[in-house]
Amino acid sequence: MKAIVIDRYGDAQELHEAQLPMPTINPDEVLVKMVATSVNPIDWRTRMGRSRAGWNFPIVLGWDVSGVITTVGTSVQQFKVGDAVIARPDTSSDATRGSYAEYVAVKADKLALKPANISFEEGAAIPLSGTVAYQVIVKQLAVGKDDKILVQGGAGGVGLFAVQIAKAQGAYVATTASAENHDLLRSLGADEVIDYHQTKYTDILHDYDAVFDTTDDIENGLAILKPTGHLVSIAGQPTFVQQSGHPSAKHWWLHPNGQDLAAVAELVAAGQVKVVIDSEYPLTTEGLRAAHLRSESHHAHGKIVITIAEPPKLNNTVM
Ligand SMILES: NC(=O)c1ccc[n+]([C@@H]2O[C@H](COP(=O)([O-])OP(=O)(O)OC[C@H]3O[C@@H](n4cnc5c(N)ncnc54)[C@H](OP(=O)(O)O)[C@@H]3O)[C@@H](O)[C@H]2O)c1
């Protein structure tokens, strides 16, 4: 099968097309014929060697799956051949199971059905970013009706999901973004959008209940919270003092699982959350190199999607 791999750590030029053996599946896994995937900052950090996991080369990057099941493992009950699915798959020790590939093996507990009214490209944008946004807003910060929350970095892949999920919870949502993204964020429900190039949000926001930090700006985020408030950062590591203070800060790592992913997919299917796609590139050497450079710019608005194949016909004969 075709995949985009790296044979050593380095810049975007290290990404190149290769032919790899088809993945084999364990009893608790399914094989997915990929239609689309997406790029996250962890991809290029790993490419640069900043997230070394002791993997062997070649490494297949990418952790968003959107496609159709072609084979199910013997112990998989909930999914069948022909199901359109999305997933944030586990990483594997041999590092050849990333999603920049035509086929990906995924453990069944990481899968969610793709709602029929969203495209495979939209589906590819949801797993990593949407699930971490959902876990922070709904589970970690437990944002509720009329709570005041600041989402730092509202125009990013995670931030756009977080703003909308917080609105769906009934919160008052402030967010930071460059001026060109303000109309987009307001159209998606943000109550207050602050241009962080012009205005220090610590000058105008006070007594907030919650902060979701996607930009590693913990000290400033803590400064706008009530003593009972909480900050969760997915981008920075709070100090011991920040963790044990009032307000408090903690770091959160995504816990991939099919249930939380399905909850986000339902919000999208119901129209409560819109998927914003920044750009699309094909699964080619040039496509992935350009997609990584776009992500490294730190100014993508929404998700960078990689298109892999035409959607197969959704029936039980897909192989
Ligand atoms: N811990 C985890 O499990 C986990 C999971 C996912 C992501 N992450 C991390 O979370 C961070 C965000 O991820 P992402 O996918 O959302 O990244 P992204 O899509 O690349 O974020 C790009 C956005 O960041 C905004 N931005 C850049 N600097 C900013 C600043 N100083 N203030 C406000 N906004 C700023 C830009 O907005 P403008 O163009 O409007 O300036 C742009 O829209 C990354 O560091 C990523 O590695 C962690």
Protein described:
This protein is an alpha/beta fold and 319 residues long. Helix 3 (127-140) crosses helix 4 and helix 3 crosses helix 9 (258-269). It contains 10 helices and 16 strands. It has helices spanning 41-47, 120-125, 127-140, 157-168, 182-187, 201-204, 218-223, 240-244, 258-269, 285-296; strands spanning 2-6, 16-19, 29-39, 59-60, 65-72, 84-87, 103-107, 111-113, 148-152, 172-176, 192-194, 208-213, 225-233, 248-251, 277-282, 303-307. It is 26% helix and 27% strand. Helix 7 links the parallel strand 12 (208-213) and strand 13. The protein folds into 2 domains: 2-126 and 275-307, Medium-chain alcohol dehydrogenases, catalytic domain (Quinone Oxidoreductase, Chain A, domain 1, Alpha-Beta Complex), CATH 3.90.180.10; 129-251, NAD(P)-binding Rossmann-like Domain (Rossmann fold). Strands 3, 5, 6, 7, 8, 15 and 16 form a 7-stranded mixed β-sheet that branches. The model has no long low-confidence stretch (mean pLDDT 95). The site of NADP nicotinamide-adenine-dinucleotide phosphate has 30 residues, from helix 1, helix 3 and helix 4. This is NADPH:quinone reductase. GO terms for molecular function: oxidoreductase activity; zinc ion binding. Residues 10-306 form the Enoyl reductase (ER) domain. It comes from Secundilactobacillus silagincola.
